[in-house]
Amino acid sequence: MLSSGSELRLLRLLFCATLILLFQADEAKKDSKSACNTCEQIVDNFNKAFDRTAKQNFGGGNTAWEERKLSKYETSEIRLMEIVEDLCESSSFECNRMVEEHEEHFETWWFKKKTKHPDLHKWFCIDTIKVCCPKGTFGPDCNACVGGSETPCHGNGQCDGDGTRGGNGKCRCDQAYKGDFCLDCIDGYFNEVRNDTYSLCTECHLSCKTCTGATNQECDECKEGWEEDEQEACVDVNECTNDPSLCREGQYCLNTEGSYSCKACDIECAGCSGPGSDQCQACASGYQDVKGTCTGLMYMFMTSCLSVIDFSMNKLLPF
Ligand SMILES: *[C@@H]1O[C@H](CO)[C@@H](O)[C@H](O)[C@H]1NC(C)=O
């Protein structure tokens, strides 16, 4: 019989082991994706170095001797060595490990397979070391993505693990699309075109929450801040006339499409119905109503002085 103490220890051990296994499975999936990325980087660098070395040994001359030398170099081991040296950044551990592990494959391809299988990515990453899959397929056996390998996710999303030996083949839909197959539209969009294999989602009118077409008459439901009128079209709600007390003292309410905002009154006003000193409800202290506009006392004083001076000048200097 186990004592309860050792039972507990056993449970804890099992729990930890499960966690570790789960964690490793997750890591392995991620690893399969990143291994493919590493391989693609290597192939990319291979092709670049291949192009670079093509020019490198060409002196510009065209003597028979030089051409013979060049054509020998083209397929030589020396050139392959120069290329392989350039496949990884020295800091990239993953890359260097992959090249080291599979160095003999590069030789095989270079001397034996290159002519028949010119696509190094396909030959090396997909068919030989099996870290990538053809486009539109995913996972250990390169199964087709949701929606088929021709148009994964029906062209409206990203297939998880696409082109790698990892992932689960499920779709992450682009903006505007949803559902397992990325054929449905999210709220605020409608299906402009739709069949079993193709879907185009287009944005609804600004006023619709959901809709069947592009105008404000084709809303299923109005967005907040909009309401149905007699023609069943969604129109802007004027929040400011519906509820004049929306804004604080010293502010006026400004209606906007689908909403409203509160703006500060002019300094001359004590409460106002709009911008400017001619829309005050009352004048602030220090200001006086002059023909419907709240005006500063200093300004009034100065203008009256000027008119007195003007008047006197006219009297004194009658031209
Ligand atoms: C679905 O619609 C697309 C685009 O209009 C079209 O190319 C395709 O042939 C259609 N497929 C079917 C099965 O009707």
Automatic annotation (TrEMBL):
Q: Which SMART domains match?
A: EGF_CA (SM00179), FU (SM00261)
Give the keywords, sorted. Calcium, Disulfide bond, EGF-like domain, Signal
Q: Which residues form the EGF-like domain?
A: 141-183
Q: Which residues form the signal peptide?
A: 1-28
Name the cystine pairs.
Answer: C173-C182
Could you tell me the superkingdom of the organism this chain comes from? Eukaryota
Instruction: Supply the InterPro entries for this chain.
Output: DUF3456 (IPR021852), EGF (IPR000742), EGF-like_Ca-bd_dom (IPR001881), EGF_Ca-bd_CS (IPR018097), Furin_repeat (IPR006212), Growth_fac_rcpt_cys_sf (IPR009030), LE_dom (IPR002049), NOTCH1_EGF-like (IPR049883)
Cite a single Pfam family from the UniProt record: EGF_CA
Q: Which PROSITE patterns match?
A: EGF_1, EGF_3, EGF_CA, EGF_LAM_1
Report a single Gene Ontology molecular function: calcium ion binding
Gene3D superfamilies referenced in this protein's UniProt entry, alphabetically: Hormone Receptor, Insulin-like Growth Factor Receptor 1, Chain A, domain 2
By sequence similarity, the record places it as follows: Belongs to the CRELD family.
Q: What is this protein called?
A: Cysteine rich with EGF like domains 2
* Organism for this UniProt entry: Nothobranchius furzeri (Turquoise killifish)
